[in-house]
Design goal:
about 50% strand, single chain, about 500 residues, 21-stranded antiparallel beta sheet, alpha+beta, elongated, 2 domains
Length: about 500
């Protein structure tokens, strides 16, 4: 038995299954200005945490993972059959939900080490993070072309240039410093020294396809192509039978270098109102180790149907891929290349109703290759006791509106434990969510006794009066005296 094969569906199934697996992730916006947590400097290096010293416990001080799917949920992709309760893949039901350009991404990081220390009117932080990032975008035309085949697109030009895969794994050595220039203004920066471990980057995917039909070749397609795919460190995973993959050699690869920069500031525009700005992960990675580049050698190609004898022991997918390789004629080279970091820009405003209560707004833009995500968040946080604080938020992330966030911080002596999620609903119902997030950590968070006494005095006064300090002259004098004493103390130390 012979069967004409025009377009394989394996690629589409791979993309859809990969994007439908729900994992969990953290919220940058929920962490923003949450000064009880020392790691809040990650979102704005210009803010100064409340603690005097902070030490993150290795591997558990900050565990972070974020997942986003712009098109569909897992339950929308997988349908149960009424006959036997088994699951089936509903690709035809998903295709109408796709936009012109669709995207899913996952971003994870684990702190291998983190430390922070208050130095006079400044705050110094440094540490090491293990970071991994994946972003895949694909056009609606490509998904339908793969699933339905090219029969419905005779003499129509389809553009696949929005198809992109970008995977990065790297180590991040960072050091930052924030300085309180005045009572109302602080500013800081952070430098990242990066070591790339592995990467897949679709640099160019300029491909236009036109389907033709004739009685001799049946369905075929003509394509104009200009493709370039860069990889680095991928051969480390190509372990042959009987050999061992060396994690030590993989991690110790220091040949792929990079640089990043964070910048931010916080300004008290009026009593109780703080405005802030930050730009995070502005930088690049330079890949030189184990580099392989795959570039299409032909700009104009023609691909006819192929025949596979299904009665023989043959893998139809392998035959199809081998045929594509021959047609596209990829040329392999070994040239080093650059990739950019996923950059975030934050603009925020926070109103301090009293020392223990804050209301905030954060607008964030994330730049991933040439794709930009937008989000904003409204939040409320309160210090319920000296050892327990809570933060709640509502966020809009890439046209998803059901993101109810929750943050909990418990301070037991010097040990701090925290938990943040941008979408508490999807945490309990992950199969029906498109945006999942979680961050948690345990670390040492120490306050100097003098600073603790000063701040405890203010904490007691604010609830006693039950009013905001804009209306209370006594509390305004207390705050002024507090900062005056700190200025005198700092000047004597200098």
């Amino acid at each position: 038995m012979k069967k004409n094969i025009s377009i394989s569906t394996y690629l589409l199934l791979f993309i859809f299954f990969l994007s439908a697996v729900p994992v969990f992730g953290q919220s940058d916006m929920l962490l923003y200005n949450f000064r009880t947590i020392p790691q809040s400097v990650r979102t704005n290096p210009g803010i100064i945490p409340r603690s005097s010293y902070a030490i993150g416990l290795p591997f558990i001080s900050s565990v972070y993972n974020k997942y986003f799917n712009s098109a569909f949920t897992t339950n929308e992709l997988l349908r149960s059959r009424s006959k036997d309760d088994s699951l089936s893949v509903d690709i035809p039901g998903i295709l109408p939900k796709l936009k012109d350009r669709n995207q899913f991404s996952e971003y994870s990081s684990i702190d291998l080490f983190f430390a922070g220390i208050r130095i006079k009117r400044g705050y110094l932080t440094f540490g090491l993070r293990n970071k991994a990032y994946m972003n895949i975008s694909y056009p609606h035309d490509l998904a339908e072309f793969i699933w339905y085949g090219n029969g419905d697109y005779i003499n129509q030009e389809l553009d696949f240039q929005d198809f992109n895969i970008n995977l990065k794994h790297y180590l991040d050595y960072h050091i930052g410093y924030a300085l309180q220039f005045s009572d109302r203004f602080s500013m800081g920066a952070r430098v990242h020294i990066l070591h790339g471990l592995s990467n897949i980057h679709f640099k160019r995917m300029n491909t236009q396809v036109v389907t033709r039909f004739d009685e001799e070749n049946f369905y075929s397609f003509e394509a104009n192509t200009n493709m370039l795919v860069n990889t680095s460190g991928i051969e480390d995973f190509e372990v042959e039978a009987g050999s061992n993959f060396s994690i030590r050699e993989y991690i110790q690869n220091k040949n792929n270098s990079g640089f990043g920069l964070d910048f931010g500031f916080n300004w008290q525009a009026s009593p109780g109102l703080n405005l802030s700005f930050s730009i995070i992960d502005l930088g690049y990675l330079y890949w030189v180790s184990g580099v392989k580049n795959y570039q299409s050698a032909r700009q104009n190609i023609r691909f006819n149907s192929i025949e596979v004898d299904l009665t023989e022991d043959v893998n139809a997918l392998d035959v199809y891929i081998d045929s594509l390789k021959q047609v596209f004629d990829f040329v392999e080279t070994h040239k080093d290349y650059f990739t950019s970091l996923p950059t975030r820009i934050n603009i925020a405003a926070f109103y301090e109703a009293n020392y223990m209560t804050h209301i905030g707004f954060v607008a964030q833009s994330r730049i991933i290759d040439d794709y930009m995500q937008h989000a904003f968040s409204l939040s409320f946080d309160r210090l319920l006791t000296k050892s327990f604080s809570i933060k709640a938020a509502w966020s809009v992330v890439n046209n998803t509106y059901d993101n109810i966030g929750l943050g909990l911080v418990l301070q037991m002596g010097p040990v701090q434990t925290y938990f943040l999620t941008e979408n508490i609903i999807s945490l309990f119902d992950p199969l029906n969510g498109r945006n999942h997030s979680i961050r948690f950590g345990i670390g040492i968070n120490v306050f100097k006794e003098k600073d603790r006494e000063e701040m405890d005095d203010l904490k007691r006064d604010f609830p006693r009066y039950g009013r905001n300090y804009q209306e209370d002259k006594y509390l305004q004098e207390q705050i002024q005296n507090y900062w005056e004493r700190k200025r005198v103390s700092d000047s004597r130390k200098q």
